[in-house]
Design goal:
The complex is a heterotrimer of chains A (314), B (356) and C (296). Chain A has 13 helices and no strands. Chain A has 314 residues and is mainly alpha-helical. The radius of gyration of chain A is 24 Å and the shape is globular. The two termini of chain A are 12 Å apart. The relative contact order of chain A is 0.14. Chain B contains 13 helices and twelve strands. Classes of the chains: A mainly alpha (314), B alpha/beta (356), C mainly alpha (296).
C-alpha cells in the first residue's frame, strides 16, 4: 500500500507544475498578451477589456493565486469569442474525445494476440507469418497518421462512399454513430497496433525462450495456456509501457483526427481556440488533456505492480 | 579407490522381460544454417522400474539433448532423426498433442539445471504446482492443494502452506530446486529425468538434493535418470552409470564395477580427474588434453581417439562398438576390448604354461 | 513519470563509448534497414538541398493562367490552384521539413547534453529541480506540447523549430541524466576526481563522449519524429503557413480538390511517405546497430 500512496503523492505536485506552465503560457505570448489577442486593429479600450477578462492585471503572484483558486472551483474562465464558460464548452466536447481514445485503445489491444502469434510461430520455426507481421507493422508505423487518414478518406469515403465524414453526432442512433466514428477510431488505432504488435512480439519471443516456459511444457501444459498465461504475464511490463506511452500519442492524435473528420471534440475546441486566439479555451483544453494523460500514467504504474510482483514502486 | 559405504548394498533391481524404458539407436540432429550438428549419435540403453541410472559426460557430450529428446522438448531446430524410445512398451517419440501432454508431468517428468530461472517469476508457487496436478489427476482445487502440500513436505520443505503462496524470487536456490522437484513428482511419475539438478547449487545443498532423490526413488519406486558431469556425486546414488562422449555411450555398467574397473580410457580419465580428499597434498589436478570434437563435422573412427593415449591408427579409422566385458558391463574401445584382453590373457597363460 | 529505473536498462561506460562509435562507423553497411533507408533518403535529401539551383520554377511565384494543370512534361508534378509548380513546392517544402527536423533534433541534443549532464553529475537540488521540470513536461503528450508551444510562440520556421525542440527536450534530458548517473560511479571518474581534475574537465573529457552514441541514436529518432510532427502541425494550419511551402500544408491545400486535381495533395503525400519510411528504416538500422536495447 505504501509505495502506491507515495506514487499517488507525486500527482498533486506534477499537476501543480502543469497548471503553472499553462498559467505562464498566456503570459509568455509575444509582447503584450492582451493586445496580441485583441489584434492589430483593436483600440485601447478593447485591449483593456481583454486584459481585465483574462486577469492580467495586478502583481503576477496574485494573478497566480486567483488562477489556481478558480481552477479548484472548476472555473476555467470564459471564452473570449462566445462568452460562454469554458468548462461547459469543454464538458460538451469531452465525451467524443473520450469515446475516440477509449475505443482506439480497445481496438489496438488486438495487437497483443497478433504479437503473441508471431512470436509463437517464430519459436516453432514457421517464420512466414512472423515476417508478414513485422513488415506490416513496419509499414504502418512508418507512415504519418494524417497521411494514412487521408488515404482512408479518399478511398473509403470519397471513392466507395461507405463512411460519412461530416454531419452531426447523434448519440442515441448507434448505427449512424458507428459509421461516423469507425474510420477515425481505426486510423487512430492503426499506429498503435503496429507499435504494440512489435513490442509484444519481441517480449514474447524472449519469454517463450525462457527456462520457465520449458518447465511448464515439461509438465504437460497446453500451448494456449503456456502462451497466454505463463509467457504473456512476463511480457506484460514492456507491453504496458507501450500502451501507456501510446495513450499519449493517441490523445495528441485526437486533435488531428477530430480536425480531419470534423468531429466536435476536445481537439477541435483546442484548434479553434488557437486559431481564434481564444486563449481561455486553449488553456482549458490543454489542462484537460494533460490531466487525462497524468491519470493514465498513474493507472499504468499501478498496473505494473499488478502484472509483475517483482516491481516495487520506488 | 572407493571405500564401500556403511550403507546397505544397492537394492537388487528386478529384471522384467521388458524394461520400463527402452531406448534404441536414438540420434538427434540440429540442422543449422551452416552445418548439421549431430548432438546424439545412436544411443541405446534400458531403464528398469525404480532403477537409478547416472549419465555422465562433459559439456557437449549430448547428455542433456538426449534427455530432452525423450520428452520432445528439443528447442527448434533440433529433431530426432533415428531410433526409438519405449516407455512401458509405448512409443513416446511418436506421441503428439494430447497424448504427449498426458505423458509429460505424469508418467515421465524432468527437472533442469538452473532453479533460478526454471520457475515463472510472475506466478506464485501454487499457480505453478496446482494446474498440472489438476490436469493429470483430475483433482479438485482442495484435493490438489492437499496433495501439493504433501509432496512439498516430502521434498523437505517445511511450512508448505506458506511456500505455496510465495513468489519464486522470495525463495533460495535450494528451496526452488525442491519446489521444482515437488512439481515434477507431484503426479507420481514412473521416470524422473534430472538434468544436472545440483550444478547450480551450493555443495552442501547438492548432497541434500541427491539424498532426497535417492529417498524418493526408494519410497515411490520412481526410476531416475541423473545427468551429471560429476562422477563422484553419483557414486553412492546410482545403480548403473552410462558414460557419454561426443554423442555416444562409451561405457555402461553397474556403478561400482565401472568405478573399480573402468574399461574405457575416457572413463578412466574422468575418474582420475576427481580430486582425492586423501592422498598427497600437493597433487596436480589431472586433466585430459584437448577438447571435445566438433559435432558438425562427421567423425571417422573413435571420437575420443585424438585425446586418448591408447590410440593407434586403427582407432582413427574404425568406429568402436560397445562390447561386453561382463553381462552388465560394456565399453566401446578398439584397443582395450574384451577380445584383446582375453587374447592377451590367453597369451600370458600360455607363456606361463610354457614357462612352468 | 515512469517509475521503472531507466538507468539500469542502459549500458554505460567504455563499452558504449568512443570505441564503439568508431567501430560502428567502420562497419558502415551493417544491415538491411539501414541501407534501404539510406538508399531512399540520400537521393531525396540531395534533391531537396540542391533544389534552389535546379532549373525548375520558383515555388512561390503564382501563374494563375497555369493553375490546376495536371502532371505533364512541362509541369512534372502538375500545378496548384495558383499555378505554382508542385515539383518546386514539394522540394522546397521538403527542404524546410528537413531543416526543421534536424535543427530541432540538434538543439534538443545540445540542451539535453548540458542540462542532463549537470543534473546527473551535480545531483541533489539541481537534479530534483530538473527532474520535476521534466516530469511536468512529460505530463503532456509530445505533439500536444508542440501544439501548445506553437500556440504561444506563434507561426513561423523559427517558432516551429523551438516548439519541436521543447517537445523533444524531456527525453533528451532524461536520457543524458540517466547515462551520466550511470557513469558517475565508474572507476575512471573517481580516478580523475582524485587527481584533482576540475569538474568541467571531467564532464567534457570523460562523461559526455561516452554518452554521445545513445544520445545520437535518440537524436536521430527525434529528427525523424520531428519531421513528421512538423508536417502534422502545418497540415493542421499551425507553424508554417502558406505561402511558405511545407509538406503538411501542401497536402492540406490540395484537400478540397482531392477528386479533381488529385495531384496537388498526392505528390507531396508521396514525398512525405518516402521520407518518413526511409527515415524510419534508417533510424531502426542505426538503433539496431549501435544499441539494440534502446528500442521502446
Amino acid at each position: 500500500m505504501k509505495p502506491l500512496l507515495r506514487r499517488l503523492a507525486t500527482v498533486p505536485l506534477t499537476t501543480l507544475g502543469v497548471v503553472t506552465l499553462v498559467f505562464l503560457m498566456l503570459r509568455l505570448l509575444p509582447g503584450d498578451p492582451a493586445s496580441f489577442i485583441a489584434g492589430e486593429n483593436a483600440n485601447a479600450q478593447a485591449v483593456a477589456a481583454i486584459r481585465e477578462k483574462l486577469g492580467l492585471n495586478g502583481p503576477i503572484l496574485l494573478q497566480y493565486v486567483h488562477y489556481v483558486g478558480a481552477l479548484l472551483r472548476l472555473d476555467l474562465g470564459h471564452s473570449l469569442l462566445t462568452g460562454l464558460p469554458v468548462a461547459s464548452i469543454l464538458k460538451q466536447s469531452l465525451p467524443i474525445t473520450l469515446t475516440l481514445a477509449g475505443s482506439s485503445v480497445v481496438l489496438s489491444t488486438l495487437a497483443i494476440p497478433l504479437g503473441c502469434g508471431a512470436a509463437w510461430f517464430r519459436s516453432h520455426g514457421r517464420t512466414a507469418l512472423d515476417h508478414a507481421l513485422t513488415l506490416f507493422a513496419l509499414g504502418v508505423d512508418a507512415l504519418p497518421a494524417f497521411w494514412v487518414a487521408l488515404v482512408f478518406v479518399l478511398f473509403f469515403s470519397l471513392r466507395l462512399g461507405w463512411f460519412p465524414i461530416s454531419g452531426g453526432l447523434v448519440w442515441t442512433d448507434l448505427p449512424s454513430l458507428s459509421l461516423r466514428l469507425a474510420m477515425p477510431i481505426v486510423v487512430l488505432a492503426l499506429a498503435q497496433i503496429a507499435a504494440l504488435a512489435r513490442v509484444t512480439r519481441t517480449a514474447m519471443i524472449e519469454a517463450l525462450g525462457e527456462d520457465y516456459a520449458r518447465t511448464a511444457r515439461a509438465l504437460g501444459t497446453p500451448e494456449l495456456s503456456l502462451v497466454f498465461h505463463h509467457a504473456l504475464r512476463n511480457a506484460a511490463l514492456p507491453v504496458l509501457t507501450v500502451i501507456g506511452l501510446g495513450f499519449g500519442r493517441l490523445l495528441a492524435g485526437t486533435v488531428l483526427i477530430e480536425s480531419l473528420f470534423s468531429l466536435p471534440g476536445l481537439g477541435s475546441r483546442l484548434l479553434d481556440g488557437i486559431f481564434g486566439r481564444d486563449y481561455p479555451v486553449v488553456q482549458g483544453a490543454i489542462l484537460l488533456y494533460a490531466s487525462l494523460f497524468i491519470a493514465v500514467n498513474v493507472l499504468t504504474d499501478i498496473l505494473y505492480t499488478q502484472a509483475d510482483p517483482r516491481v516495487k514502486l520506488s | 579407490m572407493f571405500r564401500t559405504t556403511e550403507e546397505a548394498q544397492p537394492r537388487p533391481v528386478a529384471i522384467h522381460p521388458e524394461p520400463l524404458l527402452r531406448v534404441r539407436a536414438l540420434s538427434v540432429e540440429f540442422p543449422t544454417k551452416g552445418a548439421v550438428v549431430r548432438a546424439v549419435a545412436g544411443i541405446s540403453f534400458d531403464l528398469e522400474e525404480g532403477e537409478r541410472l547416472a549419465i555422465v559426460g562433459e559439456s557437449g557430450s549430448g547428455k542433456s539433448v538426449m534427455a530432452m529428446s525423450l520428452m520432445q522438448l528439443l528447442p527448434y531446430p533440433g529433431r530426432v532423426t533415428r531410433g526409438s524410445a519405449r516407455l512401458d512398451g509405448q512409443d513416446i517419440l511418436a506421441l503428439k498433442g494430447r497424448g504427449l501432454r498426458a505423458l509429460r508431468g505424469s508418467s515421465m517428468t524432468m527437472v533442469f539445471q538452473d532453479p533460478m530461472s526454471a520457475l515463472n517469476p510472475v506466478l506464485r508457487v501454487s499457480e505453478q504446482i496446482l494446474p498440472p496436478l489438476r490436469r493429470h489427476l483430475g483433482l479438485g482445487q482442495g484435493e490438489a492443494r492437499e496433495r501439493a502440500m504433501d509432496v512439498l513436505q516430502r521434498t523437505g520443505i517445511p511450512d508448505a502452506p506458506r511456500i505455496l503462496q510465495t513468489y519464486p524470487h522470495e525463495l533460495s536456490g535450494g528451496m526452488r530446486q525442491r519446489v521444482l522437484l515437488a512439481m515434477a513428482l507431484a503426479c507420481g511419475p514412473r521416470v524422473l529425468i534430472a538434468d544436472e539438478p545440483t550444478t547450480a547449487l551450493d555443495v552442501t545443498v547438492q548432497a541434500q538434493i541427491v539424498a532426497l532423490l535417492k529417498q524418493i526413488s526408494d519410497d515411490q519406486n520412481t526410476a531416475i535418470i541423473f545427468i551429471t558431469h560429476d562422477m563422484g556425486l553419483v557414486a553412492r546414488f546410482a545403480h548403473r552409470v552410462a558414460v557419454m562422449y561426443a554423442g555416444r555411450i562409451v561405457e555402461t555398467g553397474p556403478i561400482r564395477q565401472v568405478f573399480s574397473s573402468p574399461r574405457h580410457p575416457y572413463t578412466r580419465a574422468l575418474l582420475a580427474s576427481i580430486p582425492a580428499v586423501s592422498g598427497a597434498r600437493r597433487q596436480r589436478l589431472f586433466q585430459v588434453d584437448g577438447s571435445p570434437p566438433d559435432l558438425s563435422k562427421p567423425i571417422d573412427g573413435c571420437a575420443f581417439a585424438p585425446r586418448c593415449d591408447l590410440r593407434t591408427a586403427r582407432c582413427l579409422e574404425q568406429r568402436p562398438v560397445l562390447e561386453a566385458w561382463d553381462p552388465d558391463h560394456a565399453a566401446a574401445c578398439i584397443e582395450n576390448s574384451p577380445l584383446e584382453h582375453a587374447l592377451s590373457d590367453a597369451l600370458s597363460v600360455k607363456a606361463l604354461a610354457r614357462a612352468v | 513519470m515512469r517509475m521503472v529505473d531507466v538507468s539500469r536498462s542502459l549500458p554505460t561506460g567504455p563499452a558504449l563509448g568512443l570505441d564503439q562509435l568508431r567501430a560502428g562507423v567502420r562497419r558502415v553497411l551493417p544491415n538491411a534497414s539501414y541501407t534501404a533507408g539510406a538508399a531512399i533518403l540520400l537521393p531525396v535529401v540531395l534533391l531537396a538541398l540542391t533544389a534552389p539551383w535546379l532549373p525548375i520554377a520558383d515555388p512561390l511565384k503564382p501563374h494563375v493562367l497555369l493553375s490546376f494543370s495536371p502532371p505533364s512534361f512541362a509541369h512534372p508534378l502538375g500545378t496548384d490552384k495558383l499555378g505554382r509548380e508542385i515539383l518546386s513546392r514539394t522540394l522546397a517544402g521538403l527542404r524546410i521539413s528537413l531543416l526543421v527536423g534536424f535543427a530541432s533534433a540538434a538543439l534538443a541534443l545540445l540542451v539535453g547534453l548540458v542540462v542532463g549532464t549537470l543534473a546527473g553529475y551535480l545531483g541533489k537540488g539541481v537534479d530534483r529541480a530538473v527532474t520535476a521540470a521534466v516530469d511536468v513536461l512529460l505530463s503532456f503528450p509530445a505533439l500536444l506540447l508542440a501544439i501548445t508551444a506553437v500556440a504561444v510562440f506563434g507561426n513561423g520556421i523559427v517558432q516551429v523549430i523551438l516548439a519541436l525542440t521543447v517537445a523533444g527536450l524531456p527525453l533528451a534530458i532524461r536520457l543524458q541524466r540517466a547515462l551520466t548517473l550511470g557513469l558517475k560511479s565508474r572507476a575512471y571518474i573517481d580516478a580523475a576526481r582524485l587527481a584533482n581534475a576540475p569538474a568541467w574537465w571531467i564532464l567534457i573529457r570523460h562523461v559526455v563522449p561516452n554518452t554521445l552514441p545513445p544520445m545520437i541514436v535518440v537524436a536521430s529518432l527525434h529528427a525523424s519524429n520531428a519531421i513528421i510532427a512538423e508536417a502534422t502541425l502545418s497540415f493542421l494550419g499551425l507553424g508554417i503557413t502558406p505561402p511558405h511551402p511545407s509538406l503538411g500544408n501542401l497536402i492540406a491545400e490540395g484537400r478540397p480538390f482531392l477528386q479533381d486535381a488529385w495531384w496537388i495533395s498526392t505528390m507531396p503525400g508521396i514525398a512525405i511517405a518516402l521520407v518518413s519510411v526511409s527515415l524510419h528504416l534508417f533510424s531502426d538500422g542505426v538503433r539496431e546497430h549501435l544499441d539494440p536495447r534502446l528500442s521502446i
